[in-house]
Amino acid sequence: MTLKAVLFDFNGVIINDESIHEELIKQILIEENLTLKKGEYQQVCLGRSDRAILRELLASRGRVKSEDDLTVLLNRKAESYALELDKLEKLPLYPGLDDLIFQVRSRNLKLGLVSDAIRKEICLVLERAKLAEYFKVIVAADDITTSKPEPDGYLLAVERLNQEYTDLNLQACECLVIQDTLAGVQAAKGAGMQVLGVANTYPFHMLQRCCNWTVDYLTDLELERVEEVFSQSLCQQSLQPNAIIADG
Questions:
Q1: Helix segments in 87-242, DSSP class H
Q2: What is the pLDDT of residue 241?
Q3: Does the N-terminal or the C-terminal CB of the chain have fewer CB atoms within 10 Å?
Q4: Domain architecture of the chain: domains with CATH
């Protein structure tokens, strides 16, 4: 088996913006005359789409919104997100991101991005950070009806990479996913992919239990070593939940 593609998550891997999202979710609830309980954001929201988050938070308070009503709330949040980023002199991108993208491209590996964020938010950041040209394939929350931990987004990414690069013949097991949340790891594993967990959102030891590799920072990733392990593996092995290789 050969490593052919690296799939990045967005929030928590490319940009450190979780605090912004928490405040915006709080604001939406306040506008609905509701409040976010202590610890509820971490319990309900991490690694999931805004649509799934708002649907669950509102339903748990006896509010049922139509999909069209949720779309209105999501668009309002996206506008507020753009305004919050405009206030920042520098985007809070994670250290080592540029170097990792360079490493991936220098090895002729394909790049993709799979996120439960909406496309408008993703493109805003990628364009401002001058990274948009590197991500030819993006699967956003707009593209699927489910949310992580369901694997649909990652499976769609494989289809789109094969459409973009017609001679690639990519299989899910030939992808490395970079994730920061447990829901995201579960989604990637469910798609049959190997996962590198970066401890930006959850502690190292929690990710280490469920990822093939775990690092504290993107700068710790040894892509050459990952490629070596892929070359020694069979596709079926990536599906085994106990096939864990963790780097300290």
A1: 97-106, 119-128, 152-164, 182-190, 204-208, 223-231
A2: 40
A3: C
A4: 5-16+92-239 (3.40.50.1000), 18-86 (1.10.150.240)
